[in-house]
Amino acid sequence: MTVKLAIATFAGGFIFPFLIRLLWGKMCENWGNIGGWMAAGFIVGLAWTLNHGVGMIYQTGAWIDMAWAAGIGLFTASVASGDKFGKGAVNYIVALIGGTLGGFILSCFL
Q1: What is the pLDDT of residue 64?
Q2: How far apart are alpha carbons 69 and 71 in whole angstroms?
Q3: Rounded alpha-carbon distances, angstroms, from residue 79 to 5, 76, 85, 94, 97
Q4: 50-89 per-position pLDDT tens digit
Q5: How many domains does the chain fold into?
Q6: pTM above the 0.85 mark?
Q7: Phi, psi for 81 (deg, rounded to 5)
Q8: Per-residue exposure over 23-53, b if at least 16 CB sit within 10 Å of its own CB, e if not
Q9: How many CA atoms lie within 13 A of 19 on its CB side?
Q10: Residue 86 and residue 93: Cα distance in Å, rounded?
């Protein structure tokens, strides 16, 4: 992997949890339940389009799961903002398991 591809992949992985942390809660606060649905479509759709459609991330395998980026990014942001490590460790582990399981299932038929 070249340096350019590594930077683009890092930026692509950063965008998804950044948008979740920045927008999802505000959209739910302002528009209620429909705001959550709109956030899901907008944030996940935009991140998927940039990462997979435009090809912002470099993929060596047939699949990559954005749950890895969301889990690691949101966990890191929570710890950096002052939350306790142990409080988010369970969610971090579940995100890793979910990403691994999702990737394995996809690799079974791709």
Answers
A1: 62
A2: 6
A3: 28, 5, 6, 17, 20
A4: 988 888 888 776 566 677 788 788 888 888 888 888 877 8
A5: 1
A6: no
A7: -85, 0
A8: bbeebbeeeeeebeebbeeebbeebeebbee
A9: 20
A10: 11
Q: Is the pLDDT of residue 20 over 90?
A: yes
Read out DSSP for the chain?
--HHHHHHHHHHHHHHHHHIIIIIHHHHHHHHHHHHHHHIIIIIHHHHIIIIIS--S--SSS---HHHHHHHHHHHHHHHTT--HHHHHHHHHHHHHHHHHHHHHHHHH-
- Whether residue 102 contacts residue 71, with contact meaning beta carbons closer than 8 Å, is answered with no
Q: Give the Cα separation of 16 and 12 in Å (integer).
A: 7
- Phi and psi torsions of 52, nearest 5°: -105, -45
- Locus of tokens 């993929």: 59
Half-sphere exposure for 26 (CA within 13 Å, toward CB) = 6
Structure tokens that stand for 29 in this block: 């606060």
Range of the domain at 97: 3-109
